[in-house]
Structure formats: C-alpha cells, structure tokens
Design brief:
178 residues, alpha+beta, Aminopeptidase, 6 helices, 35% strand, globular, GNAT_dom
Length: 178
C-alpha cells in the first residue's frame, strides 16, 4: 500500500519513501542507465540499500520523496543535506529509464523547488550533474537553475573521466521566472 501523497502536481505525486519501496529503489539504482548518470559505479545490494534508507532517508537533515504517477513509482527527488543556518540544500533526483523523457522529472523538481522556497524557507538550492547527462542539464536550466561552474574530471565512468557541472537557483530567481 503506497504511503500518503505529500506534494501533488498535475501528473506526478511525491510521497515519503517507505521501506516497501526498497525493491524498486534497489532495482533502479543498479540499472546502468541510472547509476552512470549519478556516477555511482559500485553495485548496491539489498542490505546496502536498506542501510542507505535508514541512514539517509530516515534522518532529519534531508527530504527524500518517491516520484509517482497513478501510484506507480517513477524515481526519487530530494534535498540533501538541508543546511538550515545557510538556508540552502542540494537537489538530487533520478527517474527510472522507462519513464524518462516524459516530463515527470521536471514536474517533480518543480514541486520540490517550490516546497523548498515556500515551505522550508530556503533561499538557495544547488544541483550537480555529469556533463554528459544532457537531459538533466536541460531539466535544470528549464526549471531556472544557472550553471555556476565546472569541476573538471570529477568522476570515472565508462573508462574515462568526466566533468561535473554545478548549478544554483536563488529564491528570488525562482519567484521572478516567467
């Protein structure tokens, strides 16, 4: 039984990640089409996925939500860690390969960004993306994030080093968007 909806959009809903979601998470974090874009090159077994759930999802310093459409899990979106003193957090997300390219990630990110600024009172969000992940670059820029810099050769994926782009979004920019 899925958990309660925390944030609802037009096509997606975001709900807390529950222990019952671990099979979905475990399957997709080990899918090369997901882990490559996250530069997570080590496999994760069920016990490691449970440890991640207990240590990260269940802590008080982050927000991790399951992206769903009609109760079907699609991916995750979150803010981790939330720095309450600075009013900032880092955005992270992924969408299962069968559901990519359909606008689900963009809607989920927009919901979380609005939540971060409207409900949590944050003033700044950051995000990082592998330079080769053009769909994610387009998503961030469509939502209003601005590329702030490049960390060169930060991740070893598929036999070569790749750059990571860093993005930022200020609350004022979010509010002033067209």
């Amino acid at each position: 039984m899925p958990g309660p909806v925390f944030l609802a959009g037009g096509r997606v809903s975001l709900r807390p990640i529950e222990e019952a979601d671990l099979d979905f998470l475990h399957e997709h974090i080990n899918d090369a089409r997901v882990w490559r874009s996250l530069a997570e090159s080590l496999p994760r077994n069920r016990d490691q996925e449970r440890e991640w759930f207990e240590a990260v999802v269940c802590d008080d310093e982050s927000v991790h939500l399951l992206v769903t459409a009609d109760s079907t899990p699609l991916g995750t979106v979150g803010l981790d860690p939330v720095d309450w003193a600075d009013g900032s957090a880092e955005l992270g997300y992924w969408v299962a390969p069968d559901h990519q390219g359909q606008g689900y990630g963009t809607e989920a990110v927009e919901l979380v960004v609005g939540y971060a600024f409207d409900q949590l009172g944050l003033r700044r969000l950051s995000a990082r993306v592998m330079a080769f992940n053009e769909p994610s670059v387009r998503l961030l820029e469509r939502v209003g994030f601005v590329r702030e810099g490049t960390r060169r050769e930060t991740a070893f994926v598929d036999g070569e080093y790749h750059d990571t782009y860093w993005y930022g979004l200020l609350e004022a920019e979010w509010r002033d968007r067209d």
